[in-house]
Amino acid sequence: MNLHIIRVIIGREYLNKVRKKSFLVITFLVPVLFAAVTLLPALIMRFAKEERKTVAVVDRSGVVMPCLQDNELAAYSDASVTGADSLKFSLVSSDSDVLLVITPIETSSLPGDGASSDALPGAALFDVKAETYSPKPIGADLQASMEAQIRQAVRQQRIASYDIDHLDAIIGSVQSDVTIKAYTIDADGKERVSESTVYMLVSMLLGMLVYLFITLFSGGVMSSVIEEKASRVVEVLVSSVKATELMFGKIIGVALVALTQFFLWMVLTAVLLTASVGILGKDALSAGDLAAPAGMDVRSLPSMPASDVLPSEVTDLIATLSSMPWGEIILCFLLFFLFGYLLYASLFAAIGSAVENEADTQQLQIPVTIPLLLGFFIAIAAYKVPDSPLVFWGSMIPFTSPIVMLARLPFGVPLWEILLSIGLLVLTFLLCAWMSARIYKVGILMFGRKSSFRDLWKWLRMR
Amino acid sequence: MNLISCQHISKRFGEKVALDDVSVEIPAGTIFGLLGPNGAGKTTLIRTINRIVVQDAGQVLFDGRPITREDVARIGYLPEERGLYRKMQVGEQAMYLAQLKGMSAADASAQLKKWFDKFGIASWWNKKVEELSKGMAQKVQFITTVVHRPSLLILDEPFSGFDPVNAQLIRNEILALKEQGATILLSTHNMESVEQLCDNIALINRSHVVISGGVDEIRRRYGSHQLQLTYSLTASREASEAAQASEAVPASGTEGLKDCPGVFELVSDEPAEGADGVAVSSGPAPLRRAVLRPLADNASVLRALLDGGVNVVSFSETVARMNDIFIKLVKE
What we know:
heterodimer; A: D-Maltodextrin-Binding Protein, domain 2; two-stranded antiparallel ribbon; 63% helix; B: alpha+beta; Rossmann fold; Alpha-Beta Plaits; 5-stranded antiparallel β-sheet; 17 strands
């Protein structure tokens, strides 16, 4: 092995890939997108409040209107005198944006068998139906807010109908809100808060990230091999350097590209997050926005006693995140990514050497992509049963282990398992690299034919 | 001294025998032609010398000792299937290929600039290869083949893809490199350039060396040695008289030539016609063209003709063309 030459090969591969527009775009766009996905819901909630609507209410039940309170979404005005039908005709020209019609109270007997209905005094159930009419469709937030307030009105009505003193308070006091607060303890009996949702998210994220990285960059090695073969530049190259030097120079070059991208992402994401927190103020990431990223404003639902629970949830989340062994996770990520990538890149290099264009790789790729996908699917399911035999073996068998092991990592993996898994991975890599190099050496000079597995096998045994 | 000596090289790919006991000697400082029909094993032999493929048996000597990886840096190889990275810039790519041959960046840069200026393509340095025409890319590739001052140049069909002007440029460069002491292995189907450039050749057919040696010697050996004669029909009166007096009568004035025992045999004798079929005449006398097979040396034949009163216009030896030898040997 000529180190100077390998350095030249690595350098070309690296610079060629790093200077590509696609690399720059992906490197700088992904952190921006990531930050956007994290922060955008909060930002949207913050700035995208709708203009307050005026709602004309025709309340035929007589119980709902008193409960409707003006909030930032809507101002309610009683229009029961005018009547629904005439308002419908004049709605477009009137000041109101929305017409809300509440039907008269319907009383029905309680569902259930005869025996239990006797048990309840005043066994009648009040209900109303509500409809809205508006020239433009109403937003989900406004609808949710109106529904919540009408439900609250009906609830009060029902409670009152039982005619029991302090029933409201009684119901409030019997409702319990038990959640499990999970701790993990290590051998020393030291406790750590562990929020399983957080573990799930981190586990899936790691599994997906390493899967994406391996697929992306080992695929890059294959394209690069095919490019050299298709453009026939390979014959000049192998007349200057050994085919194996060329192959490993390429694989290492692309690995360096991957590491560069990874570190740029970490740095950029950190910078962007810090910057946006600084600009928006800390409360942009506060409880309500984080807990309801889907766009539901928790605090507008009065039935949910939100303000008490969320801060402690956030504390737990932060506690869980900070109690994770991040140093170990990052180190393992790099190691498993690196060797997983090396393993798959050498296999993909061998496949690339057998074809002259990307379209012909389909068939040859299958045995390599199947274990990769298998690893991915085991990994994203690993959070449910992190200690099951399937996940355990998935994290040991070298072809799936880089992905599955990372998904297991947040749940804590004994050191010996990590070491054994890495050891097996490295051995498999060495074996596959040796086989791939033999195939590659012959394959890159085979032109004008569609190669099959039989050919690869033949090349493998060739001197 | 042979720069390259291939000794009893055999190579098979699976069932297919590519080379079978092939021995070739390439003297240092000469141009060596490697000939043979498609699929004969030329490329395999070239790749064996390049150490791209490893032979099953036999050995390649470089400068008298078994060739090693390090010697490959002293070889420049222009494969028949040309190829450069399409998306890479010309200069950067040439730098890369030069450095793979062990040149330092500074040396590579200086030498490449020199060659680019010489070929008048300095302005292409920052262009991408895909922007170049095929001929332009060929020029770049030729430069990348020779920039590291190789002792052995392996050129596979070096003139293909070039227009006549550029082909001449490349031809002159090849000769100049030979002047500077490089040894050149030229593989081509263009027999005219073999005749013009090569000192020695080897012809490979069906994995075997069919013939090897000096070009002139082979042309003489394998071509049927013949003489071409153009003469004017109307002999002078004095010549006719002299001819009647002479014992050796090769020709009679108006009837054409006859065999001359012990000196030559007549192969053909017909009126000389131009390409358009019109009889070529020089002055009043019609010309005739004859082909003779000499039985004595050329001087004796000419003397016999002159003594016989033949009005000789031109007299030349025709050496067999490589093209004919190639076809003859490959068909056998």
